[in-house]
Amino acid sequence: MKPLLKLTDVNSYYGKIHALKNINLEINEGEIVALLGSNGAGKSTTLKTISGLIKPKSGIIEWNAKSIVGVPAHKIVEAGIIHVPEGRRIFGGLTVTENLELGAFTFRKDKKWIKDGIERSFDLFPRLKERAKQLAGTLSGGEQQMVAISRGLMGNPKLLMLDEPSMGLAPIIVQEIMRIIQEINKQGTTILLIEQNAKAALRLANRGYLIEIGNIVMHDTAEVLREDDKIIKAYLGA
Amino acid sequence: MKKYKNQTLLLLIIALFILPFFLNSYWLDVLTLVLFYVVLTQGLNIVVGYTGLLDLGYAAFFAVGAYTTAILMTTFHWSFWLTLPVAFLFAVIAGVIIGTPTLRLRSDYLAIVTLGFGEIVKILATNLEITGSASGIYGIPRPAIGSYIMSTQKDFYYLILIVAILSIIAVYRLGRSRIGRAWIYIREDEDAAEAMGINRIRLKLLSYASGAVIGSIAGSIFAVKMSAIAPLSFSFLQSVMILLAVVLGGLGSIPGVVIGAVLVIVLPELLRGADDWRHLIFGVSLVAMMIFRPQGIWPSKNGTEDATDMDENGKSNDPNQSMSV
What we know:
Strand order of the largest sheet of chain A: 6-7-8-3-9-10
Number of helices of chain B: 12
Strand content of chain A: 25-35%
Helix content of chain A: 25-40%
Number of domains of chain A: 2
Low-confidence stretches of chain B: 303-325
Radius of gyration of chain B: 20 Å
Largest sheet of chain A: 6 strands, mixed
Strand content of chain B: under 5%
CATH architecture of the largest domain in chain A: 3-Layer(aba) Sandwich
CATH class of chain B: Mainly Alpha
CATH architecture of chain B: Orthogonal Bundle
Structural class of chain A: alpha/beta
Number of helices of chain A: 10
CATH superfamily of the largest domain in chain A: P-loop containing nucleotide triphosphate hydrolases
Order of helices and strands of chain B: HHHHHEEEHHHHEHHH
Radius of gyration of chain A: 17 Å
Number of strands of chain A: 10
Oligomer: heterodimer
CATH topology of chain B: ABC transporter involved in vitamin B12 uptake, BtuC
Mean pLDDT of chain A: 88
Protein name (chain A): ABC transporter ATP-binding protein
CATH class of the largest domain in chain A: Alpha Beta
Organism (chain A): Cytobacillus citreus
GO molecular function (chain A): ATP binding
Largest sheet of chain B: 2 strands, antiparallel
Shape of chain B: globular
Helix content of chain B: 55-70%
Family (chain A): Belongs to the ABC transporter superfamily.
Keywords (chain A): Amino-acid transport, ATP-binding, Nucleotide-binding, Transport
Number of domains of chain B: 1
């Protein structure tokens, strides 16, 4: 089977800092892949490199067997890779509905898609329906994360990349978000999940990669990683 | 409710059309200047209000329009109306020239570069021969409609009034279009907007270009109204006053920006009785206004207040949101 997304020897820099060192990563269609690692390991940089916000210095990124290195970010979105950035980054001064409309920006005049998409988001997150006309900045952290995920889905992604969706949320909300991520995956969207919360992520994922100071140091199925001594010690808490 | 609002607007427009018959020439002149500012602030509103790009050199576009019209009419004897499309074209080019190097810049840095751009245009106008150097261009002919030559104060009042109404409609429509929404997304969070598939580069350039075109129309009319233009009219102070009107009225809010334009022009005139004190009173009232109404006099519905305050993880979203004007 050909992978949906394949990174081969990707190197990225933040100015002079060598943030990603020869990253190799594969995502197959229909999978949930977790990218684990501590602060500053290069998780977010990996996502930004895939979504075109950072241009890699060298290496190959293939999407459906076609290179997407140097393709501008908005074209990558159109190709079906959608990045839900860390810290939610929703538009606090706009209403929930307006935030969702932005997610469908690449659909231009397809009004029906936009309307249906908003309905689908409300089915997935009934809580947002009550808050449709509220300014997104006034929502709770969990609700804001729901807006961010729904906004990502509005663009009809084939691959949804979620950057720390559990960050700063209460454990019960984390559970709910994780359940919904699984639901989104069941409906046919491939997911790349970045998490510091390795426990939650590995419960969900099919496979996982562990990244440390810019290097992929381990990758395996989620079952193996859950049992791995190193991971248990460093990320799961013995 | 909406019908009621439309009626009020219609009454206001009718009032503006019959007002010249009741005003002395001094107040008619003040009102004409207000309308120039209404056009200019609408143009700047696209750049600063909608897109959130702080521009301290907006008078440059005003100058591009004025000089294009003035040169084409005096040296090449073109008709006024034919100079307009050329002025638009130059304004778009100027907009792209200022837009391209500033694409990656934000807040303070952007302000400095636009400030420099404004100064470059002024200094070019002061030193080039074709722009008449420091003395400027004079003897600009009056525009004609058929055989009627526009020359009275009232003629120009009506011309700029119509342009002001058209530019308000244009900016209103733009703000509610797909492009307008994209501008607002860029203002709110540029990175997130880009991650959602917005072509940041094209839309920022479009914002500069649209703002520039509206500024250039005001410039072209200014040239034929004054019949003489000089670099002094396009100074840094002019840029600041236009920006002041936009911020004072409420960034991104059309009625707010109109009120801002009225205040910035009318307030100093009303205070003329206070002689030397008037600038002090004007300054103090501006400071007071910003303290008591930091979002502007008539803020837009989508205020620029950022979500950072409510974001529990305290991660600052974007320094651009809290613009340091």
